[in-house]
Specification:
Elements lengths: L2 H16 L11 H17 L4 H13 L5 H18 L5
Length: 91
């Protein structure tokens, strides 16, 4: 998807292997990346900005347990839309 993210993914997989785990390097689909970035935007603007990366990590933890990448993007979109609907209107 992106050379920087691919490099980080490869490094994560290599680190996991050094600790006894055999995992393929994770890759994001364009839909997953878009939804994660949108989730980060919503969280950053509705709470402390520092919570945005933690929210995307939590979304990734849950999405990684889902059966398909289509489900993952839809799941992240659903949570983001819930958060957006709870934000107060700005004038």
């Amino acid at each position: 998807m992106n050379p920087v993210l691919d490099d980080v993914s490869d490094r994560l997989a290599a680190a996991a292997e050094r600790h006894g785990g055999k995992l393929p390097a994770p890759r994001l689909t364009p839909d997953e990346a878009r939804e994660l970035l949108e989730l980060a935007r919503v969280v950053a603007h509705s709470s402390e900005r520092r919570f945005a990366p933690l929210a995307t990590y939590l979304a990734g933890c849950v999405a990684g347990r889902l059966a398909s990448t289509d489900e993952a993007a839809a799941f992240i979109r659903e949570v983001r839309e819930e958060l957006e609907s709870e934000q107060p209107e700005t004038v």
